[in-house]
Amino acid sequence: RKPITLHRLRAMHAAGEKIAMLTCYDATFARVLDAAGVDILLVGDSLGMVLQGRPSTLPVSLAEMAYHVECVARGNRSAWVIGDLPFGSYQASAEQALDSAARLMQAGAHMVKLEGGGWTAPLVRQLAERGIPVCAHLGLTPQSVHALGGWRVQGRDDAAAETLRRHAKELAEAGAAMLVLELMPSALAAEITAALDIPVIGIGAGAGCSGQVLVLHDMLGLNAGKPPRFVRDFTREGGSVAAAIERYVAAVRDGSFPDEAQHGY
Ligand code: KIV
Ligand code: NA
Q1: Residue 182: how many CA atoms within 13 Å on its side-chain side?
Q2: 215 CB under 6 A from ligand 1?
């Protein structure tokens, strides 16, 4: 297939064609996911948990993120690659965010992702104006897990929902080219998606987004303990890892994942 571009992803959002994204941290999985038709590979700082065995994403360093972006870029041919800016690599200033983003772009990312709304809008503008595509991330933002009081659904009451709507709009106006919505009521995520002309990718945010993302190890059933409600194990039907990834892409494309009754809030 032809390399996925931002233009193509925006067209998919406009046409209502669902976008399939998964996290990816190494060259082998990058090759497998790319071949299975995954549109976007997210080198997520979730690698702190699933690769490094840490209790949160907070200890992940910029050097570690750059290393994994390089690995993924080597195995990938045509997917769009997003690198997460880790905790502490963009909070201090726009200058720090620019330096950190440049590091991930030089490692092979096509876009960087950063968490939070409000205070992040000027950072997004600075990066976007300098030619660095930015994906924003709202809702349950894992780098703020301690401030949020744990892994809980966001935007449940009217005031919180209104703040999320406002933050999403501000980020899009600041030049964010994509938005991830994590762990929020499906109706709210659908409303935010419909109001924006940029692709909105959901995780635990219902079927009304432009696309879906899951942590690779979760959808391969490798989670220790009980997985969160929004996860589906795509290996349960058997077959190869590649077949499970292909099933995920197909289920996102045809709208059968996520299923509101099973996976929604
Ligand atoms: O790091 C990650 O895996 C993420 C996704 C859950 C969106 O940011
Ligand atoms: Na992340």
Answers
A1: 22
A2: yes
pTM of the full structure = 0.98
Pairing assessment for the beta strands 80-84 and 40-43 based on DSSP bridges:
parallel
At 143-171, the pLDDT tens digits run 999 999 999 999 999 999 999 999 999 99
Label the pairing between strands 134-139 and 111-115: parallel
**Cα 46 to chain center, whole Å?**
10
182 in catalytic set: yes
In the chain the domains, ranked by start, together with CATH numbers, are 6-263 (3.20.20.60)
- CB 141 less than 6 A from any atom of ligand 1: no
**Which of 17, 129, 182, 237 is flagged as catalytic?**
182
Query: Quick check: ipTM above 0.90?
Result: yes
Q: Indicate the annotated binding residues for 3-methyl-2-oxobutanoate.
A: 45-46, 84, 113
Q: Tokens at residue 229, please?
A: 């409600």
